[in-house]
Amino acid sequence: MIALLLALGSSLAYGCADFLGGLGARKAHVLRTVMVAAPASLAVELLLWPVLGASFGTAALGWGAASGVASAAAFALLYRTLAIGPMNVLSPVTALVSAALPVGVGLLQGEHLTAAGLVGLPLALVAVVLVSAGHGGGSARPSRTALLLAFGAGAAIALQLIFLHQAPSGSGVAPLITGRAVSSAVTLAAAGLMRHRLGSDRPAYAMAAAAGVLDSLANLLFLLAARSGDLTVVAVVTALYPAGTVLLARGVLAERIHRGQLVGLGTAAVAVSLLALT
Predict the structure, then answer these.
(1) How many CA atoms lie within 13 A of 233 on its CB side?
(2) Cβ atoms within 10 A of the Cβ of 258, count?
(3) Which of 55, 181, 208, 266 has the most CB atoms around it within 10 Å of its CB?
(4) Which pLDDT score is estimated for 243?
(5) Strand pairing partners for 54?
(6) CA-CA distance, 271 to 264, in Å (whole number)?
(7) DSSP β-bridge partners for residue 172
(8) Poorest-confidence range of 55-69, 136-150, 221-235, 257-271?
(9) Closest CA to 227 of 165, 182, 185, 149
(10) Comparison of pLDDT for 28 and 172, the residue scoring more
């Protein structure tokens, strides 16, 4: 139950971070937004160091660095995917892959589900797709390149979660600090190489910093959830993060929630209830 609640908190924080990051990216080039969000996120994790501790052993450094590289790759692939579109087809593909791969890894590592979990897990995967999908009535078919990028983005997100899960449980926040430092370095290097294409628009500093803080909180809650529960359950519940984004878009931007997304939110509630019984 504790792992499930932590995973739900992680999902909500990821959804809020994506919402704020998306709004920030409307005001300036997305890399300018990330150049503010990444240091803010790293600062939060450094502040958590004295509270939660950090053991920078070889395994923690290795898995943390791997998660950082995967995080940077996920960012690049995801935004490239959504830029090509159509978003309402490619977004659920990415979300489903990011949920399904950790489930496979968890099962291969010997994790088992109860009868309720065997029903709740597929329902949660369905909910991930429904919640992250927009209105698909007039959507064009995605190109092969776009589909490959969507699978790549989902795989990169999944690898980030898997690598964090593999880090030693006694390493504290060391994997998070290492991962964020690596992903920040990769992002800043990319921004330096693309500096002539970033434009002159100033980023929304407060919004970008808040997105970074929430992303850091989401990573922390996922790490704690993965350490206290099964990766198969934690990863799928965390992948419900589009629900938070959808609800915030409805409340703040008055965007319409489509019928399929409402069904997805209801399915998610049922799935989480079943997973709680595991």
Answers:
(1) 31
(2) 17
(3) 208
(4) 76
(5) 172
(6) 10
(7) 54
(8) 136-150
(9) 165
(10) 172
Q: Are 85 and 69 in contact (CB under 8 A)?
A: no
Predicted pLDDT at 66 = 96
Q: With 0-12 CB in 10 A as exposed, 13-18 as middle and 19+ as buried, what is 195? A: exposed
Cβ 166 vs Cβ 227: under 8 Å: no
How does DSSP classify residue 7? H
Backbone φ/ψ region at 230: left (φ over 0), alpha (ψ -120 to 50), beta: beta
At 88, the pLDDT band (50, 70, 90 cuts) reads low
150 versus 171: the higher-pLDDT residue is 171
* Rounded CA separation 227/173 (Å): 12
pTM of structure: 0.82
* 15 contacts: CB under 8 Å, gap ≥ 6: 241, 242, 243, 244, 245, 246, 247, 248
Helices (H), the chain: 2-27, 30-52, 58-84, 87-108, 115-132, 144-166, 174-193, 205-228, 231-238, 242-253, 259-276
Distance CA 219, CA 164 (A): 9
CB 240 within 8 A of CB 11: yes
- Give the per-residue SS3 of 84-115: HCCHHHHHHHHHHHHHHHHHHHHHHCCCCCCH
DSSP string, 107-139: HHTT----HHHHHHHHHHHHHHHHHH----TTP
Query: Picking from 19-28, 104-113, 205-214, which range would have the lowest pLDDT averaged per residue?
Result: 19-28
